[in-house]
Amino acid sequence: MAENTKRSRHVTRHRAPGLAYASTLKALQIELVKFQKHLIAENQRILIIVEGRDGAGKDGTIKRITEHLSPRETRVVALAKPSDREATGWYFQRYVPHLPMAQEFVLFNRSWYNRAGVEWVMGFCTEPQYEEFMETVSVFEQLLVRSGIRLFKYFLDIARDEQRRRLEARLRDPLKQWKSSPIDAVALQHWKDYSVARNAMFARTHNAVAPWTVVKADDKKRARLSVIMDLLARLDYKDKDHALLRPDPEIVFGYSEEALRSGVIAP
């Protein structure tokens, strides 16, 4: 009997972290459902931009946010490479049709910030195109916010060794191989280039109207929970569980030059 008790305690200790994550995630997803009811009742429009390096966990974070929300009022936007025709238009034009209408909760899995990241690093846009984007994106976002859209911008940040581990794991896992792309193959080779591009993006597009929130995402589970907590903590809705919404400030925090200089944001 004593031996069985010891074994039971051992199992409980071993499983506790996973159980804590699952129970906290469920509680947060209930809060998301509460908020969506409020969003629909108040005809609000929510737009969440999720950016980050390849392998940073964007898909998993978005999945946990949307998993139990109403599919009628929730959309995830992940646009493919622009067509030849789209490439001739105003850069933001192909994103505009996907912006949220009243009662909608929209998440962009990558966004117009492709131009500040992969397009610039990989040479898919010209320097004038890049400069035009950097000079006008804040104006564009200010127009969205002024129109009544609630805009949240999250950047999932990971260390170089963690990115290598995740990209290699994708190739071994048959259920994740769809995520692999030719861009992944050279992501690590261009680590410093992506860091320079990210830093320029932060410096030129972080502002009071549309600030960047950084998420340290080496620990996927903590990152997911912290993003949901941070988002809900900034939203108003009925029967809000304030005690639950305490994001870890070491995991999720507003962008600052100090965080960049100190190495809190991966160099």
Structural notes for this entry:
This protein has 267 residues and is an alpha/beta fold. The protein has a single domain (2-261), classed as P-loop containing nucleotide triphosphate hydrolases (Rossmann fold). It has 9 helices and 6 strands; from the N terminus they run αβαββααβαααβαβα. A 6-stranded mixed beta sheet has the order 2-3-1-4-5-6, with helices on both faces. It is globular. The model is unreliable at 1-16 (pLDDT under 50).
Task: Give structural attributes.
disordered N terminus, 13% strand, 267 residues, 6 strands, 6-stranded mixed sheet, alpha/beta, Rossmann fold, single chain, globular
Shape: globular
CATH class call: Alpha Beta
Catalogue the unreliable spans.
1-16
What is the name of the CATH superfamily?
P-loop containing nucleotide triphosphate hydrolases
Q: What is the C-alpha radius of gyration, as a whole number of Å?
A: 20 Å
CATH topology: Rossmann fold
Q: Average pLDDT, to the nearest integer?
A: 91
Q: Which structural class matches the secondary elements?
A: alpha/beta
In short:
Helix content is 47%, strand content 13%. It is of the alpha/beta class and 267 residues long. The chain starts with a helix and ends in a 6-residue tail after the last helix.
List the helices and strands and how they pair.
Layout: H1 2-41, E1 45-52, H2 58-66, E2 74-77, E3 104-109, H3 118-121, H4 127-146, E4 149-157, H5 160-172, H6 182-187, H7 191-205, E5 212-216, H8 220-233, E6 252-254, H9 257-261
Parallel strand pairs: 1-3, 1-4, 2-3, 4-5
Antiparallel strand pairs: 5-6
Helix pairs in contact: 1-8, 2-8
